[in-house]
């Protein structure tokens, strides 16, 4: 006789027979998470056949990538003797998605040791334990909604979670103003409604009175239509109604999206003949579940809308601090630029941010067609970095108008950055006043002359640009990297040196300037990151491949060179020099009154050769006469230096060491040039090389004065420059009614488009520009 709990011999069945009859998936894994057994129901549930997954990792069950970490946690927990329960998203072999509720327990050896893992699984929401599965789906929805603050991503994740697991069709409509627009239209098996039937994404939606979606928004509560055959509703259009009948819509739930008492829109789910389900109808339980899901979705949508509004405001603020979308037309240069903000930080330990940053660039028109170019990056990100960037751009533009060498401009900018500190109270364990250090800024400032093709530049800790010459790509060599702006805080000793460097660009050369966001922290497929050098090589290869195309193509190729989302904003500026020589005429004259007419004659001949209209040429020649006359008059009226006699010491007078001094030197004069210029309307310093003091005290020999006239022609502008050796920079005088002079520069100021003066290595240059009529 058999004891209690013992089956009779004739009733004993092998375990495989029992397990194959179970309406639940049973998966057995060894200690290394490899599948060693799966029953018949498991093959149906997970969509694999035969022994396809035997001996393979548990991940071969089609567990979605986002759940890999959860699967690893399951194995670790159960192998320690614990019990685990949770929900997985599984991708079947046919491409469909199924959500499974899993219960895992240890597989124990008779000795008590844990030899593996046994997993019991069933389809979520289709079991007798619907209450537990409800929490599983809500948990899944919560995880999906917490993963993004971007509206489109949030809505897409919701639809992907509900279709096809809980619905064949998912629609989400949101208000924009007082109109309702479709934002999501997701269907099982990748089916798409024919055009002109159901509203497509982006189209307005208008539900007629009595429609279940209209009722849900009106009642502010979920509405269930358990059997669509028994209830007829007015449809938005006849074509949408016919499609619903053709699709065999069986059951529908609509739930309003409410947050803080405000109606954002409506979410609707429907079952149809697209998929085969044991029960193609929703019930009251499903209605309550969707109502709870809609509450979470509404909160997530509201957060995403607020975040996108904040992000759009911040990015608009930043973009308005940068140059416009299109570079200005410049003679001898083709320019393209591209700025891309980083995506919101979500998984790098910084919290979610709007990602405005401090990358900046600019193109600054200078005197006589020369161009200032800058690329830079403010350390850090956020509103402060963007604000510092805007101030830097404005300051550099102001400093650049002095037309000083790039190294001098960076020195002034560094001094300005060092003043950007202020005492701030930092709240920590102790309240104290601390001095916030100045921002650190890397940048390179270039000045390019398209007529001479000379590029002058100075660097402040920025990455060197790429230089493309005859299809060969290399980095523009910096003799000195220079220190970053703001590196030396107030009170620190030492000096940051910015060296002046010069190179000549060949016709058709291309420069690619970029910020470090282009080459920093790009993720690989294996979860690692590209090194900066690997990223540089990919950018070089992409630029070389696109070098034969236009500057826009080069900029786009550089941006797309390194795969993966960027962690920092990126600025790219591409500059290409012209292949043709630009028109220029130049001649040197002695600084004599008679040469004024010669200079005007040269200008008239040049303008005529360039095809200028008579009125334009006459105005240009008038202004040439005024500027040249000004240079000649002040060259001839150079004030005499004041001389002081130095009394010689008699020979034999004892020195400091007691030795007698030698023969007396000849009588000398000390020249006080500054005093001689007192009252000079132009101000400035006198050039001592302008005079030779001979041994004869009563004689002085002036050097021969010269000036140089240079004329440049661009596509729609003419520039005139007059160079001389006088260091004094001119300024407009206020001439009285009876004064005979003092109006020359006033005429230039009134009639020229722009004018100015800049110091040169051996004097100054006075310049003006005039437009060419079309």
UniProtKB/TrEMBL annotation:
Identify the InterPro entries for this entry. Bact_Sigma-Reg, GAF, GAF-like_dom_sf, HATPase_C_sf, PAS, PAS-like_dom_sf, PAS_4, PPM-type-like_dom_sf
Q: Which Pfam families match?
A: GAF, PAS_4, SpoIIE
| Chain coiled-coil ranges | none
Top-rank taxon, per record: Bacteria
* Chain ranges of the PAS domain: 18-82
Alphabetized, the UniProt keywords read:
Hydrolase
The protein's name is: SpoIIE family protein phosphatase
Q: Which organism is it from?
A: Actinomadura chokoriensis
Organism placement in taxonomy: Bacteria, Bacillati, Actinomycetota, Actinomycetes, Streptosporangiales
